C-alpha cells in the first residue's frame, strides 16, 4: 500500500478544518452557557469538593443506596442549594458534592449534617479538595504559560535542527492537535458535564511533545531524501517520507495506545479523563503529522522553492559508508 | 564482539545494581497515594505589613512548624512556595479539620508572669516536657502513628500543666506589642543572645512585669500559641524600676543557631499577619491504597500488551526490544528510588506512558533495519545502519518531549511536577536502553548462527524486495 497524501491534501485540510471548527463552535456555545470554553473543574475556579463514602462496616449503615434528594435537602438547609451532587459507586454508597469554597467550620457543619441524615462516613475513604479562587487562577495561568513556553522552545529547537518553515508547520500541526482535543472536551463538557482540571493542561503538553515527536520523525526522513535527491519534486519526496515512516507511526501510536487504554480502563478515577485526553490527542497527533504538517510543508515549498540548508546538521546525518 | 561483551557486562551490572537499589530504597509515596492532607497556607498582608518579605515568611513558617509539631504527625513537610505561600504536607493525618483549625489561626505570642511559689514545679514540669519531646523525636523516625499520637497527648498535658503556672498581665502583653526580635553575638566569644524591642505601651507593660519578677527567681513565661518557648528570669538590679525603655536582651548560653531560632519564633508571634488556608487536598488512606493498586494493574497490563505486540510484529528484534524494555522498567524504577522521586498518581501515569514511548526508539530502529534489508543489504549492515540512521530521529523527538517536560517542571506545581519529572527521566533512560541494550543484544543475536536469518528480522522479505525493485 502506498499513500499519496499530497494528491488529496485539500481533502485532509478540509477534514481537519471541519473538525476544528466544530470544536471551536462547541467552545463558543460552552462560553455562552457556562462562561468558559471548557467546563473548568475546581482546580481553576476554586471551590470545595467533598467525596464521602458510607462506612459499611457499621451495622445497618449501608442498607440501601444513598438518597440523592436527602442529600439535596441537607445542602439546601445549609444554604448550599446550587451545589452539584453525584452518587458514586456501584452500590451507590458514595457521594461527591461540589460547592463554593467552604472554610473548616462550614465544611465540618456540612459533614455532620450529612452523616446525621444519611449515616456514618468512613474517614479513610474521604476525599476533600478545597481550592481558593486565587490558587485556581494561579494554576490556570501557570499552566497556560507552560504551554506557551514549551511551544516557543519547540519552535526554536526545530528551527535549529531543521529550518524555520519546518518549525512553523510542526507548530501548526501541534495547534491543530491541541485545538481538536480541547474541542472534543468542550463537547464532552456540554453533553456529559466532563470537567477539565490541571491534569488536562498536563495532557495538552504531553500531546504537544508527542505530536512534534511524530512530525519530527517524518521531517527527518524528508530531510534525508532531500539531501540525496535535491532535484526531485517536493511532493514526491514528502509522499515517500510519509510512506517510509508510516509503519513506525502506526506501531508507535499503537503501543502507546495499549499503555493508555490500560490507564483508561484500570487506572483510578482521577486518571480517566487524563488518559482520554491523551488518547484523543495522540491519535490526532499521528494524523496531523502525516496529513497536515507534511502536506503543508510540500505545498509551501512548491510555492517558495525547496532548497534546504543542510550544513548545520551535516555532521550527525552523514550516513555510514555502504560497501 | 569485544565491545558487545563489555557492554553486556555493563548492562548486567546496571540491572543488578537497579534490583539492589529497588530492594533497598523504598520509593516515597505522594499524599494522593498514601493518604493525607496537603495544605497551602497564604500569608495575608495587612495595613501594618503591606508587603510580605522573606523575613516575614520565615517567621510565619516557624510558627507553622511549631504548630505542626503539636499535631503529632510523622514526617511532615513544610516548604515556602513563591512570595507568600507555605506548603504543608501531613501524611496519614486522620483528622484534617483539626489540622486546618490549628494551622489556620494567627499566631498568639504572650509574655506572662510566673505565679509565686511554683519554681520547683516549673522545673519539674520542664524536665518532663523535655523528656517527652526527646521521645517524640525518636518516635517520629519509627513512623508508629498511635504511639506518636499518645506521646503528643502527653506533651499537650505537660504544656497545659506548664501554662497553669503562669498568669497573664493586666492588660496582657502580647505579640502585638513586640516590634522586633533578633539574634546578636555577646561580648564573650561564641555566645549569642536574643534582643527584643517593644512599642511604647508594650515598654510600659514590660517594665511593670519585670519589676514584679526581678530578683524573685520566678520567670517571664514567653508563650507562643499557648506553648512555653522561653522562660527567662530578671536580675535583682531591676527591682526598683523594671526594665525600662522597651528594649531587653534574653541571655543564656545560646549558640548562633539557637538565638536565631528563638528570634524567629518571637517574630512569628509578633506578626499581626493573618494566614489563610487557600488550598486543601485531603485523600483518605484507603482511597490512596486503592489508586495504587489500580495503577499498578494498569501499568502491568499495559506493559504485557506492549510486550506481546512487539514479539508478534517484530519477531527476534521484538524479543530483544522486550528484554530491553524490562531493563528499561528496572532502571527507571531504580532511578526514581535513587533520586528520591516522590511517586504520585500522575507520576505513575508518566511512568506507564513512558513505557509506551520507550518502545518508540526500538520501533524506529527496527523499521529502519527492515528497510535496509529490503534494499538488499546484508543483515549486519542493515542492523548497523538501522541504529545509526534512527539515532537523529530518536534524539530530535525526545528533545522536543523534554522541552515540554521542562516547561511543566519549571512552571507547574505539585502533582504536575511529578509527572514531568517521571516522564523526562523515563525518556532519558529509554534512550540509553535503546542505544546500548537493544543494540548490544541485536549484535549478539546476529552473531549466533541459528539467529542469523534475515526472515527472522523482516518477515515476507522476498516479496517486498521484488516490489522495491519494481519501483
* Silhouette of chain B: elongated
* Count of DSSP H/I helices of chain B: 14
Number of strands of chain A: 4
Query: Segments of chain B where pLDDT lies below 50 for 5+ residues?
Result: 464-471
Helix percentage of chain A: 55-70%
What fraction of residues of chain B sit in β-strands? 15-25%
Overall average residue pLDDT of chain A: 86
Overall spatial form of chain A: elongated
Distance between the termini of chain A: 30 Å
Q: Give the total of beta strands of chain B.
A: 11
Beta-strand content estimate of chain A: 5-15%
SS-based class of chain A: alpha+beta
Q: What Rg of chain A, in angstroms, do the CA atoms define?
A: 25 Å
Largest interface comes to:
A-B, 80 and 85 residues
User: What is the helical fraction of chain B, as a range of percent?
Assistant: 55-70%
Main beta sheet strand tally, sense and closure of chain A = 4 strands, antiparallel
Distance between the termini of chain B: 37 Å
SSE topology string of chain B: HHEHEEHEHHEEEHEEEHEHHHHHH
Helix and strand composition category of chain B: alpha+beta
How many H/I helices of chain A? Answer: 10
Oligomer: heterodimer
Amino acid at each position: 500500500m502506498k499513500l499519496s497524501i499530497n494528491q488529496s491534501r485539500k481533502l485532509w485540510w478540509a477534514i481537519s478544518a471541519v473538525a476544528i471548527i466544530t470544536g471551536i463552535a462547541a467552545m463558543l456555545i460552552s462560553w455562552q452557557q457556562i462562561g468558559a470554553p471548557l467546563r473548568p473543574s475546581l482546580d481553576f475556579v476554586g471551590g470545595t469538593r467533598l467525596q464521602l463514602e458510607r462506612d459499611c462496616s457499621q451495622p445497618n449503615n449501608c442498607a440501601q443506596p444513598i438518597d440523592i434528594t436527602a442529600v439535596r435537602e441537607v445542602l439546601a438547609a445549609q444554604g448550599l442549594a446550587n451545589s452539584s451532587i453525584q452518587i458514586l459507586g456501584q452500590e451507590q454508597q458514595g457521594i461527591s458534592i461540589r460547592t463554593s469554597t467552604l472554610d473548616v467550620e462550614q465544611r465540618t457543619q456540612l459533614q455532620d449534617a450529612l452523616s446525621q441524615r444519611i449515616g456514618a462516613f468512613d474517614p479513610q475513604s474521604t476525599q476533600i479538595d478545597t481550592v481558593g479562587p486565587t490558587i485556581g487562577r494561579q494554576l490556570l495561568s501557570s499552566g497556560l504559560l507552560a504551554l506557551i513556553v514549551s511551544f516557543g522552545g519547540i519552535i526554536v529547537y526545530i528551527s535549529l535542527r531543521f529550518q524555520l518553515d519546518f518549525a512553523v508547520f510542526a507548530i501548526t500541526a501541534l495547534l491543530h492537535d491541541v485545538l481538536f482535543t480541547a474541542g472534543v472536551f468542550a463537547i464532552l463538557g456540554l453533553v456529559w458535564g466532563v470537567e477539565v482540571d490541571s491534569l488536562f493542561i498536563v495532557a495538552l503538553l504531553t500531546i504537544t511533545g508527542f505530536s512534534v515527536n511524530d512530525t519530527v520523525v517524518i521531517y527527518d526522513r524528508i530531510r534525508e531524501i532531500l539531501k540525496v535527491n535535491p532535484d526531485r519534486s517536493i511532493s514526491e519526496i514528502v509522499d515517500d517520507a510519509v510512506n517510509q515512516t508510516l509503519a513506525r507511526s502506526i506501531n508507535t501510536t499503537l503501543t502507546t495506545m495499549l499503555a493508555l487504554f490500560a490507564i483508561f480502563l484500570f487506572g483510578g478515577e482521577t486518571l480517566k479523563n487524563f488518559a482520554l485526553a491523551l488518547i484523543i490527542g495522540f491519535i490526532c497527533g499521528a494524523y496531523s503529522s502525516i496529513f497536515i504538517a507534511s502536506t503543508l510543508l510540500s505545498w509551501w515549498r512548491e510555492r517558495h522553492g525547496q532548497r534546504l540548508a543542510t550544513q548545520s546538521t551535516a555532521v550527525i546525518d552523514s550516513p555510514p559508508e555502504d560497501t | 564482539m569485544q565491545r558487545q561483551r563489555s557492554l553486556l557486562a555493563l548492562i548486567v551490572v546496571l540491572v543488578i545494581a537497579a534490583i539492589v537499589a529497588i530492594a533497598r530504597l523504598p520509593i516515597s509515596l505522594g499524599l494522593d497515594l498514601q493518604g493525607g492532607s496537603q495544605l497551602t497556607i497564604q500569608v495575608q498582608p495587612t495595613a501594618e505589613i503591606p508587603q510580605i518579605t522573606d523575613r516575614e515568611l520565615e517567621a510565619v513558617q516557624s510558627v507553622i512548624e511549631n504548630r505542626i509539631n503539636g499535631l503529632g504527625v510523622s514526617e511532615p513537610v513544610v516548604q515556602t512556595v513563591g512570595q507568600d505561600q507555605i506548603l504543608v504536607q501531613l501524611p496519614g493525618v486522620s483528622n484534617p479539620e483539626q489540622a486546618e483549625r490549628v494551622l489556620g489561626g494567627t499566631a498568639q505570642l504572650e509574655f506572662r508572669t510566673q505565679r509565686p511559689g511554683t519554681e520547683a514545679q516549673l522545673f519539674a514540669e520542664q524536665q518532663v516536657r523535655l523528656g517527652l519531646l526527646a521521645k517524640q523525636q525518636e518516635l517520629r523516625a519509627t513512623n508508629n502513628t498511635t504511639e506518636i499520637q499518645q506521646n503528643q497527648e502527653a506533651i499537650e498535658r505537660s504544656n497545659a500543666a506548664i501554662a497553669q503556672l503562669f498568669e497573664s498581665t493586666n492588660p496582657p502583653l502580647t505579640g502585638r506589642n513586640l516590634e522586633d526580635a533578633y539574634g546578636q553575638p555577646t561580648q564573650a566569644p561564641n555566645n549569642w543572645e536574643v534582643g527584643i524591642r517593644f512599642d511604647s505601651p508594650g515598654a510600659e507593660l514590660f517594665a511593670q512585669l519585670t519589676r514584679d519578677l526581678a530578683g524573685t527567681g520566678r520567670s517571664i513565661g514567653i508563650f507562643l500559641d499557648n506553648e512555653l518557648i522561653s522562660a527567662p528570669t530578671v536580675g535583682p538590679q531591676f527591682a526598683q524600676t523594671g526594665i525600662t525603655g522597651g528594649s531587653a536582651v534574653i541571655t543564656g548560653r545560646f549558640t548562633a543557631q539557637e538565638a536565631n531560632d528563638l528570634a524567629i519564633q518571637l517574630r512569628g508571634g509578633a506578626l499581626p499577619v493573618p494566614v489563610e488556608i487557600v488550598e486543601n487536598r485531603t485523600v483518605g488512606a484507603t482511597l490512596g491504597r486503592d489508586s495504587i493498586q489500580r495503577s499498578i494493574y494498569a501499568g502491568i497490563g499495559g506493559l504485557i500488551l506492549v510486550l506481546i505486540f512487539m514479539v508478534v510484529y517484530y519477531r527476534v528484534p521484538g524479543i530483544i526490544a522486550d528484554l530491553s524494555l524490562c531493563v528499561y522498567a528496572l532502571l527507571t524504577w531504580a532511578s526514581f528510588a535513587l533520586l528520591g522521586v516522590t511517586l504520585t498518581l500522575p507520576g505513575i501515569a508518566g511512568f506507564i506512558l513512558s513505557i509506551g514511548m520507550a518502545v518508540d526508539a526500538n520501533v524506529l530502529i527496527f523499521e529502519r533495519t527492515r528497510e535496509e534489508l529490503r534494499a538488499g543489504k546484508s543483515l549486519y549492515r542493515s542492523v548497523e545502519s538501522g541504529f545509526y540512521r534512527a539515532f537523529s530521529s530518536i534524539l530530535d523527538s525526545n528533545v522536543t518531549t523534554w522541552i515540554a517536560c521542562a516547561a511543566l517542571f519549571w512552571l507547574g506545581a505539585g502533582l504536575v511536577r511529578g509527572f514531568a519529572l517521571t516522564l523526562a527521566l523515563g525518556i532519558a533512560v529509554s534512550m540509553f536502553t535503546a542505544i546500548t541494550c537493544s543494540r548490544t543484544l541485536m549484535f549478539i543475536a546476529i552473531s549466533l548462527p541459528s539467529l542469523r536469518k534475515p526472515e527472522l528480522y523482516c518477515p515476507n522479505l522476498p516479496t517486498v524486495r521484488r516490489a522495491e525493485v519494481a519501483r
